[in-house]
Amino acid sequence: MLSVKQRSDYTFRFNKEMGRHGWLRLTPAYSVKLVQELVEETPRRARILEPFSGTATTGLCASESGMASDSLDINPFLVWFGNAKCAQFEENEIEALEARIDRVINNLPQFLEIENWAPKIHNIERWWCGHTLPLLCALRSSIVDEFGEPSENKYSSLAWISFCRLMIETSSADFNHVSMSFKDKVTRYEINQIKLLFKDIVEAITFSAKSNLTGKAGFFLGDSRTLDALGDNTYDHVITSPPYPNRMSYIRELRPYMYWTKFLNEKQEAGELDWRAIGGTWGTATSKLKDWAPDNVNLPESLLAVCEKILNAENKNAELMARYVHKYFYDMHSHFSSLRNHLNHGAKIDYIVGNSSFYGNLVDSEQIFESSLHSLGYKNVSSRIVRKRNSKKELYEFCVSATWNG
């Protein structure tokens, strides 16, 4: 394992200059290159499923390769974003959109003269200074005046995605770490800088939106533990990367986007989304985890053993973390169980997941996944190391694979 490299081309860093893949910056997004390699292994007429859509990497790669795919996510913002990211756009309609954007920019000064809505983001001054924030609020009001609030209209969605990109680029968010952090100082922007930057972002996004997608991708709101949103649909290849068992908020980096687009209004809604996510716990979700208990499901012995070790660690949060790890793999086992009803004979599944460590106790995610898959009747179960994740020698990213012959 020590010879395995940290593959930057298998991380979010590779995505940022990749056309539509780089529309919004989110560090948890997995590598376009890795997904492309898995898509290339898929027979051309096969149908692909992505049960943890995230930023639509799998759906877009499949569409770029001329293939059909469906993606599922529990987060309505990501479903909206995925449908826009993988839509087919007409060049004349994009030109009309750009003219409307010019109107938005020209009307900006009049909105600076009124009081505008601002999102209820905790410590919002940490994100934007008191001079920049009113400019963003005024620009948002101008976009609403021209396009309305975010909707399923794919052209107005481009305007809103451009605003999201502007909002994050003018913030103090720092993406030089595994997860988003903050710069020491917020930057002050003047109105002309906001106008020019927004115009540049719109041009970059609309330029990549003109690229022709030969496949078709659908995005649906639903729970991956039950997969009820898929109806009777069946698939030939599952390509996905579920949340890792590391107790990070499922929507941590999505919060600013979701507040500004009104997919979130109150912090309680964020906690509810975290709770409904696989293994989710953060904020109010943590309180619910304390009362959680598993149903009578036979889970891998290796999982129960590591949970016992975490429970006995000398840390005040040991019981909570043991419960978290237990729930995470319980949720994934439920997902693998439900997935069987949506797989064609001979279907292949590929899951990109990382291992974790709690108080010095290594959680071998790939081995626990393998045990769950074996117990549920999957065949040809295996895993391979994709890359070394960071400086901690024991942390890796794996691709866990199996086939379904039921």
UniProtKB/TrEMBL annotation:
PROSITE patterns: N4_MTASE. This is site-specific DNA-methyltransferase (cytosine-N(4)-specific). Keywords: Methyltransferase, Restriction system, S-adenosyl-L-methionine, Transferase. The keyword Methyltransferase applies. It is an enzyme of class 2 (transferase). It comes from the Bacteria. It comes from Kushneria phosphatilytica. Belongs to the N(4)/N(6)-methyltransferase family. N(4) subfamily. One of its GO terms (molecular function) is site-specific DNA-methyltransferase (cytosine-N4-specific) activity. The keyword Cell membrane does not apply. It catalyses: a 2'-deoxycytidine in DNA + S-adenosyl-L-methionine = an N(4)-methyl-2'-deoxycytidine in DNA + S-adenosyl-L-homocysteine + H(+). Its EC number is 2.1.1.113. InterPro entries: MeTrfase_CN4_CS, SAM-dependent_MTases_sf. One of its GO terms (biological process) is DNA restriction-modification system. SUPFAM superfamilies: S-adenosyl-L-methionine-dependent methyltransferases.
